[in-house]
Each structure stands twice: as structure tokens, then as C-alpha cells.
Design goal:
The complex is a heterodimer of chains A (178) and B (391). Chain A contains 7 helices and no strands. In chain A, helix 2 packs antiparallel against helix 3 and helix 3 runs antiparallel to helix 4. The N and C termini of chain A lie far apart (65 Å). In chain B, 70% of the residues lie in helices and 3% in strands. Chain B has a two-stranded antiparallel sheet with strand order 1-2. At the A-B interface, helix 3 and helix 4 of A face helix 5 and helix 6 of B.
């Protein structure tokens, strides 16, 4: 008990945010209504952004909110509202799905264990650590310097995906306009 | 206990809390009196008198309206999703109030030898914060519209959401042109760089135009107030809402107007800068002493910032009572086929102008060339027969 009370304040912040993250994640998979699931997922994204801010990665936090919470989840909500899924899903009776879920869970668990073991061994040098790592300037310099080629390749990939989406959505000749 | 009080006085905490509360109160007051201002402006434009019964010149009208809102029956439809129905207007209000947190309303006060910025929080990703909050604003509308369990509400919510998503893109790209010129994401830095009449509006006329149009669409203001449409959708996403929940939705619109005017003032009109501010500050410092002079100069700067904000709000109202509203397909065509290509063109012109070294001349020459090019292409385009509209 004495141990818990003597922790630095940042630990309490971390604990609260982690509880919130897990609450959102569990709500996402456990709620019956898909719209509620999406809202829980948005809560999860927000608390993950809070974790990024704790790790001093402001840019990543802001971009996480803008891209995931602000754009992707809005589209999710959009589609789910239109579909109006009411009937119970029978998917859990499907054997393939259960097998796939078990394999994925095992793989994920293995990765988590490996990283947890590595995290104990490699200590971070707290004195020599550059506090500006994760800020916009440093991130921009490494993206446009060291990682210029992968960055540009990814942007080409995005352009291709965008053009593909436009092609799929384009009205073909003779098709009705709704 | 004594050390705690001393810590409170010495740290920024107390001053920051005070500044946040003052900004919050001013935001609410300005939003409340915007409703009065809107009716007065509408009345002036339409040659009427406007509200004139409650108080002198109708000045107590916002209080009377708020009282009416509170005492109306708070109705929740039987088939509605109760919690989400309540969450919708709360989220709208919450995101509207959050966006002015990074706006620097003035330079700084020197209190007890310490410099206190007149700004709730100073973070080096200020613009991204504003952009993130703006992109969240759509949730209040969508959740409220869906939770009402009414087809008109749902359609209104989906209209509002697709409109907001479409115009966010062009808005972001017009901001990126500003970021390329200033090289920083901090709103305070952007304002400081516009010191001395160096306002961004002179460098980014097209960016300003795109940003303003997108701000109108993001606030759901006329000419883009399509989510609310009596002939097609009844009341849009707030059809089922009554009492203060409806009040929150309507109030959030006015707070959004205030916030977007503040951001526009910071990005394009130099924020708290005004012509001749160095001269005024020097005179005040020589007259009142270093600290008091600086503080009074800051107060004048805050006054100039609020003048710009109030003009922005007036501009919103002026447009509302002047321009007819768009049709929905026109709105989407303008956003995707008009503003986004223009914003990309503006980005390229800005980049070339910065690289060439002649920022001001380069941007204006580039824009002139773009206008010429567009008009040539426009006059040479093949004429469509039976085209419904030519956007």
C-alpha cells in the first residue's frame, strides 16, 4: 500500500489512461450495437493519443486524432448508420473464423511476450535522451532526410490507392444516378 | 500549507486558470450576444427593427431566450438511444468550446516579474490541435442524428457529416500553404511572424478565400446550411431535439463562428498585431514604466484582436443575409471539383514563390497566371448539351 502511494504522479496518469484504454477496447468488442462499438473505439483512440502525449510524441498524438478519430471512424460510423445492422450475427458458429481468431491471438501474444522480455533488458539512458525526439522538427528532419525514399514510395502507394478508389466509385456508362 | 500557497502564486497555474476561465466566459458572452447581433444585422439588412422589447435595444433578448429554452419540456423520443441522444449536443458544445484553447488573444502580461501569455495553452502543434478539434465536431451532429431514431434526423446528420468531411480537405490544404510560409505549427509563432503589417492575407489571398468558404461550410452557416432544410428534411439532425439540448446545438454554431473568426484573425490578419504597435508600446513604456507600459500595450493588442474577431462574426452574418443558399449537389461539386484543385494550385504556387526568393511578387504573379490559365481552359472546354449545371 505504501508503495502505491509513493509512486510519481506520472504513474497515476498512466494507470488512469490505461484503464480508460482497456475500457474502450473491451466495450468495442463486447457491445451488441455496432454504433456503440464505434463510439467505444473512438474512446480507445483518444486514450491512445493520451499515451502518446505521455511519451512526449505530440505530433503523433495530434495526427492519431485527426486521421483515426477524425476521418476513419467518421467513415465507419457513416457506413454502419446506413447499413442499420439489426439481425444477430451467426459468425461464431463458423469454424474457420474461430481457428483464425485463435491463431491471431497466439501470434499477438507471442509478439507481446518477446517485446516485454526485451523491454526489461534494454535500459533507456535517461540523462542522454534528447527530449525533443518525437517533436515535429526532429520527426520532419528524419522523415525527409534519413527515410526520404520509403516516405516517397508510401506517398506513391497512397496516390495509387486514391486513384483506385475513384475508379471503383466512378459511375459507368448506362448506370443509373441512384 | 504555506508552501502550497506560495507554489500556487509562484507557478503559472493560477494565472493560466484565470486566463482559461476568462476566455471561457468571454466566448460564451460573445456567442450569446451573437444571437442578438444576428437578429439586429438581419433586421438592418431587411429594413426592420429587430428585437427591441426586452431591455434597451433588445439587449436582454439572449437572456430571455435562454430562460425560454430552459423551461421548455425536455423531450426524449421513446425509441431513441437515450444516452447517445444526450451525448450528441454535449459533444457539439464540448468540441466548439475546445477550439479556442490554442488561440493567442494577446501578447503577454508581466506580473510580478513573470511573463504570462494571454493564451490558454501554448503547444508547438497548435494548428494541428485546431484541425483535430474541427474534425471531431462532426461527431456531435452524427451521434445526435442517429440516436433520434428518425429518418429525417439520420439523413440530416449524414448530410452534415459528408459536408464537413468534404470541406475539411480543402481547409487543411489552404492551411498547409500558410505553414509552408511560416515554417511552424505554433499559432503564437505564426502571429509573431506577421508583426509589422506583414499579414498573411497579402501573401495568401487565394488561401484566405478557400479557408473562409470552408469555415462557412464547417460551421453549417448559410450559404451552406444544407443539413437543416425545412422542405426536404424538416429540422435536419435536430428534428427531435427540444429545450436546452436544441439550445446547445444552436449555441455551438455561434461558438464555432467565434472560434473560426479567431483562428482566421490569427492565421491571416496578424492576430493581436496592429499598425504602429511598436510606436504605441514605446510611448507607453516611456510614459508608464516598463511593466505597466507593456501591460497596457498588451491590452490594446487584445482590443485589436477582438475587433478583428467581431468583424469576422459580422462578416458571417452579413453573408447569411445576402447570399442565397446552395443546392446540395452544387455544394459537393464546389468542394471536390472547385476548392480542392484550387487549394492544390495554391500550394504549388506558394512553394515555387518561396523557392524563387520573391515571396510576395511570386505568389501574385503565380495567381495571375493561374487565373489566365483557368479562363483559357474554361473557354476552350467542350460545351455539354442538356447539362443540368455547369460547376
Amino acid at each position: 500500500m505504501q508503495n502505491i502511494l509513493n509512486l510519481p504522479p506520472i504513474w497515476y496518469t498512466f494507470a488512469i489512461i490505461s484503464v480508460l484504454t482497456l475500457f474502450g477496447a473491451l466495450g468495442t468488442i463486447m457491445s451488441k450495437n455496432p454504433v456503440h462499438s464505434v463510439i467505444y473505439l473512438i474512446v480507445t483512440f483518444f486514450s491512445i493519443s493520451a499515451h502518446y502525449i505521455l511519451l512526449n510524441a505530440q505530433f503523433l498524438a495530434a495526427v492519431n486524432i485527426i486521421v483515426y478519430a477524425g476521418a476513419i471512424m467518421v467513415l465507419f460510423l457513416f457506413v454502419i448508420m446506413f447499413l442499420n445492422m439489426k439481425e444477430e450475427a451467426d459468425e461464431m458458429k463458423n469454424n474457420k473464423l474461430v481457428t483464425a481468431a485463435i491463431v491471431t491471438a497466439l501470434l499477438l501474444g507471442g509478439i507481446l511476450i518477446i517485446f516485454l522480455r526485451r523491454a526489461g533488458k534494454e535500459k533507456v539512458d535517461t540523462l542522454g535522451f534528447n527530449s525533443q525526439t518525437g517533436m515535429v522538427e526532429i520527426l520532419g528532419q528524419s522523415l525527409y532526410g534519413e527515410y526520404l525514399l520509403p516516405f516517397e514510395l508510401i506517398s506513391v502507394l497512397f496516390l495509387v490507392a486514391m486513384a483506385g478508389a475513384v475508379m471503383l466509385a466512378k459511375r459507368e456508362q448506362g448506370e443509373r444516378h441512384f | 500549507m504555506g508552501s502550497f500557497v506560495q507554489w500556487l502564486i509562484e507557478s503559472m497555474f493560477l494565472w493560466k486558470a484565470l486566463i482559461i476561465i476568462v476566455i471561457f466566459a468571454i466566448t460564451l458572452a460573445i456567442a450569446a450576444y451573437s444571437t442578438w447581433g444576428e437578429r439586429k444585422v438581419a433586421a438592418y439588412i431587411q429594413d426592420r427593427r429587430g428585437p427591441n422589447r426586452a431591455g434597451w435595444g433588445g439587449l436582454l433578448q439572449p437572456l430571455a431566450d435562454a430562460g425560454k429554452m430552459f423551461f421548455k419540456e425536455d423531450f426524449i423520443p421513446a425509441q431513441a438511444d437515450k444516452w447517445l441522444f444526450i451525448l450528441g449536443p454535449c459533444l457539439s458544445m464540448f468540441t466548439a468550446l475546445m477550439s479556442s484553447a490554442v488561440v493567442p488573444f494577446g501578447s503577454s502580461f508581466i506580473i510580478g516579474g513573470k511573463e504570462v501569455f494571454v493564451q490558454a495553452i501554448e503547444i508547438n502543434i497548435g494548428i494541428l490541435y485546431v484541425f483535430g478539434v474541427v474534425s471531431l465536431g462532426v461527431y456531435g451532429v452524427m451521434i445526435g442524428g442517429w440516436a433520434s431514431n428518425n429518418k429525417f434526423s439520420l439523413l440530416g446528420a449524414i448530410r452534415a457529416a459528408s459536408q464537413n468531411i468534404s470541406y475539411e480537405l480543402a481547409m487543411g490544404m489552404s492551411i498547409i500553404a500558410i505553414l509552408m510560409m511560416s515554417g511552424t505549427l505554433s499559432v503564437r509563432e505564426i502571429v509573431l511572424q506577421q508583426h509589422g503589417g506583414n499579414w498573411n492575407i497579402f501573401y495568401q489571398p487565394l488561401g484566405f478565400l478557400i479557408f473562409t468558404i470552408c469555415a462557412f461550410a464547417e460551421c453549417n452557416r448559410t450559404p451552406f446550411d444544407l443539413p437543416e432544410c425545412e422542405t426536404e428534411l424538416v429540422g435536419g439532425y435536430h428534428t427531435e431535439y427540444s429545450s436546452m439540448k436544441l439550445g446547445f446545438y444552436l449555441f455551438a454554431e455561434y461558438i464555432n463562428m467565434f472560434a473560426s473568426s479567431a483562428v482566421t484573425a490569427c492565421l491571416f490578419f496578424g492576430g493581436y498585431n496592429y499598425p504602429g504597435m511598436d510606436f504605441v508600446e514605446r510611448q507607453l513604456i516611456s510614459g508608464l514604466g516598463a511593466n505597466a507600459g507593456h501591460n497596457v500595450a498588451t491590452l490594446i493588442g487584445i482590443g485589436s484582436m477582438f475587433t478583428k474577431i467581431l468583424f469576422g462574426i459580422f462578416f458571417f452574418m452579413w453573408v447569411r443575409w445576402t447570399v442565397p443558399r446552395f443546392r446540395y449537389d452544387q455544394l459537393m461539386n464546389l468542394g471536390w471539383k472547385g476548392l480542392i484543385p484550387l487549394a492544390v494550385g495554391n500550394l504549388i504556387i506558394t512553394a515555387i514563390a518561396i523557392l524563387s526568393g520573391y515571396k510576395l511578387v511570386g505568389i501574385w504573379v503565380g495567381l495571375a497566371l493561374m487565373v489566365v490559365l483557368i479562363s483559357i481552359v474554361w473557354s476552350l472546354r467542350p460545351k455539354k448539351k442538356n447539362a443540368i449545371m455547369g460547376a
